[in-house]
């Protein structure tokens, strides 16, 4: 007969920074990790995580669960002992495998093909733990939350999420439906970014008019976005007028194919073609929407069109504004566009106001906020009465 034991939590990293999150949930008999990310640029010089039984020493971990494929959540999984099973939502795993295959000459070994695929709502049993992936929405497609249960305790790990994307209803359902939660561990990236009463926070849907207007005004419309911004790229593709071409490179095309496998019809991409010579020749005559990244080969393409068709070409900048000053390749593209630059971007992270709402929906007994560099969130957040906000440090152990 199973006896009750203590369920404990340790944030190996992420208590006081955005990048590099890694959370351990464990008992006397079982250890699970949720994400094992790399620190973001600008978060100081940091050694990689050195976790006994996971990245060093004798293997002592029963599984690692990944919420999504962004580097600040998976960036150090290459250092994990290969004997430890890794779990990820099945379509997100396919996207990650394409990403790693594309970059394998740069980042080293590809491991995603060995990751265990999990399905939304289908529980996985590991010893005394039951882990269930719940639907979420983030700027990485097919992100998930995790419900973790053991010894009568129930923990919700949100990963990165938002309530202003195309799948807001699904996220709200994940927050409303799991029942009593003893501990909620939620991201707090945007805690200090309050929404102005006069300038409401933009949604993904609110970017559509900017795309439509660009195609009315310009024949050649470039979209500069991260290759993982699949929701936005699909949305952009749906705005390309009939008779014009929607073009990506072969890598982005492959990502969109996987993305469309798990998408309601209204949210699928529309008529995406990869950049064959035949397509490019037709597209220059008819006009196009074309997705680009900031590397040198795309810079040459964008520069060419701005030089040959200065009045008919525009660049939609759909990334965090800080990259313009931080990354010279991004600035180069923005400079090419000049006055024909259109900014259209929203965050992949939950707003402060929606974070408060999410916590109010869940109403956990205890709350931990990670994935934030904000030091004053206790004073900034308006929480329902009765919720114990735990202030934890990296490596500190707390009992659920």
From TrEMBL:
Domain of life: Bacteria
Xref: Gene3D superfamilies: Ribonuclease Z/Hydroxyacylglutathione hydrolase-like
Alphabetical list of InterPro entries matching this protein: Metallo-B-lactamas, RibonucZ/Hydroxyglut_hydro
Domain Metallo-beta-lactamase: 19-211
SMART domains, sorted: Lactamase_B
Name of the molecule in the record: Ribonuclease J
Organism, scientific name: Pseudobutyrivibrio ruminis
């Amino acid at each position: 007969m199973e006896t009750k034991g203590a369920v404990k939590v340790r944030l190996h990293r992420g208590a006081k920074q955005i990048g590099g999150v890694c959370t351990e949930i464990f008992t006397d008999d079982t250890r699970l990790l949720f994400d094992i990310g790399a620190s973001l640029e600008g978060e100081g010089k940091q050694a990689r995580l050195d976790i006994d039984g996971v990245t060093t020493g004798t293997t002592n971990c029963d599984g690692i669960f990944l919420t999504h494929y962004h580097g600040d959540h998976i960036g150090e999984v290459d250092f994990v002992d290969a004997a430890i099973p890794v779990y990820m939502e099945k379509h997100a795993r396919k996207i990650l495998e394409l990403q790693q295959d594309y970059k394998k000459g740069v980042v080293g070994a590809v491991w995603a093909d060995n990751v265990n695929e999990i399905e939304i709502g289908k529980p996985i049993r590991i010893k005394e733990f039951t882990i269930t992936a719940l639907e979420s929405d983030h700027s990485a497609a097919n992100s998930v939350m995790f419900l973790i249960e053991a010894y009568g305790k129930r923990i919700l790990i949100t990963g990165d999420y938002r309530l202003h994307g195309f799948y807001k209803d699904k996220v709200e359902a994940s927050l409303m439906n799991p029942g009593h939660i003893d501990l909620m561990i939620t991201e707090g990236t945007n805690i200090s970014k309050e929404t102005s009463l006069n300038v409401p926070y933009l949604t993904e849907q609110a970017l559509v008019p900017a795309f439509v207007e660009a195609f009315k005004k310009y024949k050649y419309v470039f979209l500069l976005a991260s290759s993982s911004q699949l929701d936005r790229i699909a949305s952009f593709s749906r705005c390309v007028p009939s008779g014009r071409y929607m073009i990506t490179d072969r890598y982005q095309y492959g990502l969109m194919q996987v993305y469309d496998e798990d998408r309601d019809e209204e949210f699928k991409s529309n008529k995406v073609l990869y950049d064959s010579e035949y397509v490019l020749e037709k597209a220059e005559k008819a006009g196009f929407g074309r997705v680009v990244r900031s590397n040198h080969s795309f810079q040459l393409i964008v520069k060419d069109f701005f030089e040959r068709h200065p009045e008919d070409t525009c660049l939609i900048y759909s990334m965090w504004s800080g990259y313009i000053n931080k990354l010279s390749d991004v600035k180069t593209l923005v400079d090419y566009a000049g006055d024909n630059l259109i900014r259209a971007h929203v965050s992949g992270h939950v707003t402060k106001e929606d974070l408060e709402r999410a916590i109010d929906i869940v109403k956990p007994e205890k709350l931990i906020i990670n994935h934030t560099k904000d030091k004053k969130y206790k004073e900034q957040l308006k929480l329902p009465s009765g919720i114990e906000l735990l202030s934890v440090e990296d490596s500190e152990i707390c009992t659920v």
